[in-house]
Specification:
The protein is mainly beta and 195 residues long. Helix content is 4%, strand content 48%. The longest helix has 8 residues, at 160-167. The two termini are 40 Å apart. Residues 147-170 have low confidence and may be disordered.
Amino acid sequence: MGLLCESEGWHPEPELVWLDSKGVHLSAGPPETHRDLDGFYTVKRHVIVQETDTNHFTCRVQQSRINEKMETEIHLPIVGSKPVVSIEGHREGGMGLLCESEGWHPEPELVWLDSKGVNLSAGPPETHRDFKGFYRVKQHVIVQETDTTALPAESNRAGSMRRWRQRFTSLVSCLITQPHGEWPSWCYAVWEPSL
């Protein structure tokens, strides 16, 4: 992932460095420095980072001659695994589905959406934190048959699952998000019954 740090209004010319969570300098692109008409400097620098255990990075702009520095800490969310949607079988007049994903940080939110993007009523999410501090989330939902999506069932003996798939909503999405913070992220899985 590429990050950019930019700071302006410095005099004399500053130095910009990128640091990892342990304070180790990261190999970054060359700094770009510009001086305005008033003699103040703007400096910016790109860095390419790989996902780490913490995903904490620091942009430090410093002017050693006047012992001045400014630091900005960046915490990138860790996007977990692609959600997996599985069929649990017939439940309460509908079809039970389960969505699971792991490896998230910070704690994500899970939402079920129907084919029109409307939130489906689902049970409470189950969230667990592993020994490394990453979150695993799962949630159950029951998709109900609706009159508007009902299709005639075939007359052959293909089984109740095939007939159910022909009668129920054709598209359900499991959306996992990290909506809070500077770097929103999301991941989704779509469950579409095969006809």
